[in-house]
């Protein structure tokens, strides 16, 4: 299985500000798991930076949310709502629970409301 992937050419996606507490969720081609139903989710940090990850827990490889686009716990960590693994929102690193590595991070840059997705990279081992 690959540790990283580059999109050639990069993907251009229009950013849509999600409802409060929810993530912007979209399909991306060639997800790391090979499962075409895997989606990516994105949040804007308080600094204005946008971060994105694939919606796949690194413990049991199931979706993190309950299909409601809510990925954060009350402390601002990305949480697997089945087993409780917690990940740092800014880095995707595993910080608590049974996950053995960080989330697969979407590599991106922003230009106004345009997101330029250049690829993805698997997270660090815990």
Describe, in plain words, how this protein is organized in 3D.
The chain is mostly beta strands. The protein has a single domain (about 5-120), classed as Rieske [2Fe-2S] iron-sulphur domain (Rieske Iron-sulfur Protein, 3-layer Sandwich). About 0% of the residues lie in helices and about 40% in strands. The chain has strands at about 5-15, 25, 40-45, 50-55, 80, 85, 95, 105-110, 115-120. The strands form two sheets. Strands 1-9-8-4-3-2 form a six-stranded antiparallel sheet, with no helix packed on it. The protein has a three-stranded antiparallel sheet with strand order 5-6-7, with no helix packed on it. Strand 6 and strand 7 form a beta hairpin. The radius of gyration is 13 Å and the shape is globular. The mean pLDDT is about 90.
Work out the count of structural domains: 1
Strand content: 35-45%
Q: What is the CATH domain class? A: Mainly Beta
Instruction: Give a short account of the largest sheet.
Output: 6 strands, antiparallel
CATH topology: Rieske Iron-sulfur Protein
Q: Quickly give the structural class.
A: mainly beta
Let me know the CATH homologous superfamily: Rieske [2Fe-2S] iron-sulphur domain
As residue ranges, the low-confidence spans are none
Distance between the termini: 18 Å
The mean pLDDT is 92
């Amino acid at each position: 299985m690959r540790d990283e992937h580059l999109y050639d050419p990069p993907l251009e996606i229009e950013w849509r500000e999600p409802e409060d507490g929810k993530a912007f969720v979209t399909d991306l081609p060639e997800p790391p798991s090979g499962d075409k139903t895997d989606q990516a989710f994105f949040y804007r940090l308080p600094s204005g930076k946008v971060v994105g990850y694939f919606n796949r827990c690194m413990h049991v490889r199931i979706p993190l949310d309950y299909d409601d686009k809510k990925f954060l716990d009350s402390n601002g960590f990305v949480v697997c709502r089945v087993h409780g693994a917690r990940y740092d929102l800014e880095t995707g690193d595993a910080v608590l629970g049974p996950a053995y590595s960080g989330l697969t991070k979407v590599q991106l840059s922003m230009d106004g409301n345009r997101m330029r997705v250049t690829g993805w990279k698997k997270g660090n081992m815990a």
